[in-house]
Amino acid sequence: MYQYVIKKDNQHSQSIFLTESEVAIIIKNWLRLTYINWGWIDDFNKIITKYVESCVYILIDPFRKHHVKYFKKLKVFKGHLDQINNVQFSPNGKFLVSCSWDKTIRMWDIASSKEIQRFEGHTSYVTSAQFSSDNSKILSCSRDQTIRLWDVTSGQQKHLFQGHSNIVTGIQFSSNGKKILSWSWDKTIRIWDVETGKELHKVRLAVPFITEAQFLSDDLSVILCSSDKTIRIWDIISGQIVQKLDNLLGVVTRSRFSIDCSKILLWSEDNTIRIFNVNTSNEVQIFKGHLKAVTAVQFSPDCKTVVSSSEDNTIRIWDVTSGQETQKLAGQSTLIRGLQFSPDGNTFISWPCEKKIQLWG
């Protein structure tokens, strides 16, 4: 809470108290109005506004814990021949990996915006792809019911993982890089050995659809969310579901876990986004503002910010603590299918239904 003194005249003044989020909203709206007004000196105004914006942040920064980050489009990556299904940053933040209905996985250099490697071998569209922690390998999964491991340098396939009987929708490396987690429309979650390609563990769930799964920090348990509004924790060694949280929300469209798995983002058919505490099943925050169905949501790495997209053709940035919208990127030309923050949280990517990837920062 900050105190501001408004001086009316030489004898009278008034104190007002504003929260950090209220100060941020005032600054944001003032800057937005400044951009809109004085169109006849637009170029000059942009220079002055940028200078004032930086000065305001410098003045406020000593009293704040973090900046209010404002994003603009920086780059566009083009090359895929069909709809993009998933995009991920490399752990070092220098590269992107994308996968598409065109059956390819592509690696991009962020600095040059150029495609630097292509991985081909899947016989149907690729649903997800991810870098290994050392940036040397890429893991992918597909409608062809397989998981494949690729060498980044050569572009060659290293391993083929087979066993799922339906579309494989998601994959993840364990923290030590020795195991792979996968989930599928066949209603199973499986653990694989990276070196041998063998299936190590499997659990079958009586659920319509697994929306998200993630290794816990010890790599011995998996937390997962399903379309029956339930979070489950699966103990890999015993093969048992050891914890279950029910009835988180009405109709869950999709979900995203925070990095430490302590929180989960859920978005549903009522156009809202909600954060739940995984341990207690309590709702801790709700974000309202989208006018149509939400299509994608993502936590920033520090869990202080959420980015979302919607059928209302906007991307919105939210402050997790206050629940307030801090920025709206309106006028998106088509539906945004996915969002992902960079490892440092300073940029994020979006991929619309236009065979391209957009970088914001």
From TrEMBL:
CDD domains: WD40 (cd00200). Gene3D superfamilies: YVTN repeat-like/Quinoprotein amine dehydrogenase. WD repeats lie at residues 77-118, 119-160, 161-202, 210-244, 287-328, 329-361. The keyword RNA-binding does not apply. PROSITE patterns: WD_REPEATS_1 (PS00678), WD_REPEATS_2 (PS50082), WD_REPEATS_REGION (PS50294). Keywords: Repeat, WD repeat. It comes from the Eukaryota. The keyword Repeat applies. This is Uncharacterized protein. The lineage of its organism: Eukaryota, Sar, Rhizaria, Retaria, Foraminifera.
